[in-house]
Amino acid sequence: MATFKAPKGTYDLIPPVSVKYLAVREAISAPLRNSGYGYIETPGFEDVGLFARGVGESTDIVSKEMYAFETKGGDQLALRPEGTASVLRAALEASLHKQGNLPVKLWYSGSYYRYERPQKGRYRHFSQVGAEAIGAEDPALDAELIILADQAYRSLGLRNFRILLNSLGDKECRPVYREALQSFLRGLDLDEETVRRAEINPLRVLDDKRPDVQKQLVGAPVLRDYLCDACKAYHEEVRALITAAGVAFEDDEKLVRGLDYYTRTTFEFVHDGLGSQSAVGGGGRYDGLSEMIGGPALPSVGWALGVDRTVLALEAEGIELDIPASTSVFAVALGEEARRVLFGKVTELRKAGVAADFSFGGKGLKGAMKDANRSGARFAVVAGERDLAEGVVQLKDMESGDQTAVPVGELIDTVRARLA
Ligand code: AMP
């Protein structure tokens, strides 16, 4: 028989490691939930046009990496490669921007798909937690998001990350810069692929890691010199607010990010223990995206943090999250009568809010106690026929090893008292 494996570029989250992923999602979303962001969930696939918008700068990377397909009904769909466009689409569709105060603040958590060349930290299926603040142009909003991401990483214990910050200008000054950069690039000796990229997405050429390209880029026009006064003032305010919050960052004029819809504030969180796939999260302002997808002008800002790479970052820093054992009580029944009684007690414990598990499969004492150990439970409840004849069960403290007989009818209260 054929055996199946997880598809190339994907992996499964399995216990005990999977609990870290839950903890990371929880830690990243906690500051958002605490700051007025509402939860949103959108489909895993969308109309392909939502992501591939014409032959713009975005198609350069997005199209090539997208899982696009035609359905039996003839619809052109794509597995979502990112969250921002979907969230904005959903907000527009539900007219959230018309229902009250702007900005509309939303957070999400889910799976994303990119047909990339897999390597450590780069997968074809990965997960992100993201946040979008839609419909307000306010440097405090950009600052809020950066501060919340910083807080999220710090709450996990991460320290070896840096925040890179840049401004990409707006629809006034960015095109002027783009033009200047393009004419500079046209004078260089570049390969065909890079020449093509220079025409579609010249800012991305600045990102080229190859030394021979980097050498030629010395003296290239820098965006900072082209920012209009409004963009400059906006950026200074974002910088001042983050600084006042005690969040350290580095100005990185080369930070351009992949997607074409970014304007003004752009940032990336990089972790220094991850090798080439060092970006653990990123985001920025996307004032033009709403109009690009047929909506009204809705200046917005957001970020997405990669859950997979955040877990890798935790490992790189040797951080063990303090995750309590999921089971508090483990019941070990010896004999049929004890099985019935203890199974009933486990159900009662669970109803009382105590995490409890049971030794299934009719194991003997030794095997069952091994399971109790492995579960990480604080208490084992052991009972055989003799105990039941006396109307008691044995409550064993797995930390101290102490064991006491407890009347069957008092088990739930006793356990709850001792756990409290
Ligand atoms: P991006 O929109 O490309 O900046 O993605 C935001 C974050 O998602 C990145 O900083 C990564 O942490 C994560 N990410 C993006 N692509 C991948 C991938 N192929 N595999 C794993 N994580 C990814």
Ranges where pLDDT stays below 50 over 5 or more residues in a row are none
The fourth-level CATH homologous superfamily of the largest domain is: Bira Bifunctional Protein, Domain 2
Q: How much of the sequence is in beta strands?
A: 15-25%
* Gross CATH architecture of the largest domain: 2-Layer Sandwich
N-end to C-end Cα span: 52 Å
State the assembly state of the protein chains. single chain
Q: Nearest-angstrom radius of gyration?
A: 27 Å
Just give the CATH class of the largest domain.
Alpha Beta
Side-by-side strand order of the widest sheet? 1-5-6-11-10-9-7-8
How many domain modules?
Answer: 2
Question: Within the CATH hierarchy, at the fold level, what is the topology of the largest domain?
Answer: BirA Bifunctional Protein, domain 2
Mean pLDDT: 94
The helicity comes to: 25-40%
Note the overall shape.
elongated
Compute the number of strand runs: 16
The profile of the biggest β sheet is:
8 strands, mixed
